[in-house]
């Protein structure tokens, strides 16, 4: 299926949970935050939240700033 | 000097200097500069994970989290909606509900959009955030932000990254006079005297990034800023003398060997 990940089309076999998506991307869930169709997903909901065809996902982290 | 913590929303900070984490030559230099500055609160930005290059070291590993509180910002947001989304994401990364709220209204000056800022402050306060808005040096908007529930107000000294120093000292003084929440001068500091001036005006703290990070020697500048903030704070608490247009001798006029001549001319020296 194709999702929109950080503004770009992204191919992944799905549907997948947020947990599985982060694992596939090799991202440490403790240092990122995830938005699923404009709604922030709480960490304890990563296993229960399912990403489907066409969904929009944003994954962010902290970077240097003022 | 007795303990003089900066207290925001019930949380005490030993240092009145808030430092950024952007633009340093390296993360190692940043960590040294943070140590030299004595800060116990640093700002960070929220950005998309770079999916093509995940090898980059994590900023967080270079922040002494047991000693330093992390304040996420909403830098780069141009609408209330984007700032609110960014704040919600930041809360989820950082596991704290504090946010330095920025809603930029003009790309060239980076001046805030006060209308959107006020709107975003209301929404985030209602969601339980501790909101520290970066704002213009305007007493009216600062009062409105405070009424909207801001935990502090953060008027700019000059445009972000400009290094121009405190452009409108009188406004900073007025903002401090009326505020019942801490006032933190955020942006515009170029060198140590600028930070000292902000504190002498009565600001409760100073927030800076570029002045330290882009200095030729960021660690030395961080030390200078620590001293400047402390000196300015001490001077403010000590109570400065009033300004006067003419001289006033420090040494006694009586007993001078040339007293007769001076009396004739009416002059006294230092």
What would you note in describing this structure?
The complex is a heterodimer of chains A (66) and B (270). In chain A, strands 2-1-7-4-5 form a five-stranded mixed sheet, with no helix packed on it. A two-stranded antiparallel sheet of chain A has the order 3-6. Chain A has one helix spanning 18-24, and strands spanning 2-5, 8-11, 16-17, 33-36, 39-41, 50-51, 56-64. Chain A has one domain: Beta-grasp domain (Ubiquitin-like (UB roll)), CATH 3.10.20.30. The model of chain A has no long low-confidence stretch (mean pLDDT 95). Chain A contains one helix and seven strands; from the N terminus they run βββαββββ. With 270 residues, chain B is an alpha/beta fold. Chain B contains nine helices and ten strands. Chain B has a three-stranded parallel sheet with strand order 3-10-9. Chain B has a three-stranded parallel sheet with strand order 6-7-8. A two-stranded antiparallel sheet of chain B has the order 1-2. In chain B, helix 4 (139-147) links the parallel strand 7 and strand 8 (154-155). The mean pLDDT of chain B is 94. At the A-B interface, strand 4 and strand 7 of A face strand 4 and helix 2 of B. Strand 7 of chain A pairs antiparallel with strand 4 (41-48) of chain B, so a sheet runs across the interface.
Report mean pLDDT of chain A, rounded to a whole number.
95
Order of helices and strands of chain A: EEEHEEEE
The low-confidence parts of chain B are none
Q: How would a textbook summarize the main sheet of chain A?
A: 5 strands, mixed
What is the helical fraction of chain A, as a range of percent? 10-25%
Unreliable stretches of chain A, pLDDT < 50, 5 or more residues? none
Give the terminus-to-terminus CA distance of chain A: 38 Å
What is the 3D shape of chain B? globular
Class inferred from helices and paired strands of chain B: alpha/beta
The number of helices of chain A is: 1
Question: Mind telling me the CATH class of chain A?
Answer: Alpha Beta
Strand order of the largest sheet of chain B: 3-10-9
The chain pair with the largest interface is:
A-B, 25 and 37 residues
> Structural class from helices and strands of chain A?
mainly beta
Architecture of chain B in CATH?
A: Alpha-Beta Barrel
CATH architecture of chain A: Roll
Number of strands of chain A: 7
* CATH class term of chain B: Alpha Beta
């Amino acid at each position: 299926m194709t999702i929109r990940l950080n503004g770009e089309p992204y191919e992944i076999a799905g549907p997948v949970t947020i947990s599985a998506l982060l694992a596939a991307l090799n991202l440490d869930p403790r240092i990122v935050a995830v938005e699923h169709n404009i709604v922030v997903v709480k960490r304890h909901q990563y296993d229960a939240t399912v990403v489907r065809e066409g969904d929009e996902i944003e994954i962010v982290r902290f970077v240097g700033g003022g | 000097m007795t303990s003089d913590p900066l207290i925001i929303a019930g949380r005490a900070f030993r240092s009145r200097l808030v430092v950024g984490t952007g633009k340093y030559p390296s993360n190692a230099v940043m960590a040294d500069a943070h140590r030299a500055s004595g800060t116990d609160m640093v700002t960070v930005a929220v950005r998309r994970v770079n999916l093509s290059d995940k090898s980059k070291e994590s900023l967080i590993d270079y922040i002494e989290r047991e000693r330093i509180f992390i304040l996420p910002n909403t830098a780069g947001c141009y609408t209330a909606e984007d700032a609110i989304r960014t704040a919600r994401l930041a809360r989820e990364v950082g596991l704290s509900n504090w946010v330095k709220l920025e809603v930029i209204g003009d790309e060239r000056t980076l001046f805030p959009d006060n209308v959107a800022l006020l709107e975003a402050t209301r929404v985030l306060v209602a969601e339980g955030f501790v909101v520290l808005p970066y704002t213009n040096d305007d007493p009216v908007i600062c009062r409105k932000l405070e009424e909207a529930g801001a935990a502090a107000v953060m008027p700019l000294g000059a445009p972000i990254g400009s290094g121009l120093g405190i452009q409108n000292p009188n406004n900073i003084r007025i903002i401090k006079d009326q505020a019942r929440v801490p006032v933190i001068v955020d942006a515009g500091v170029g060198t140590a005297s600028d930070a000292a001036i902000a504190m002498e005006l009565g600001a409760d703290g100073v927030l800076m990034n570029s002045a330290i990070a882009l200095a030729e020697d960021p660690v030395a500048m961080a030390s200078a800023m620590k001293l400047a903030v402390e000196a300015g704070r001490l001077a403010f608490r000590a109570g400065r003398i009033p300004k006067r247009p003419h001289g006033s001798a420090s040494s006694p006029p009586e007993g001078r060997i040339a007293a007769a001549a001076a009396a004739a001319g009416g002059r006294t020296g230092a």
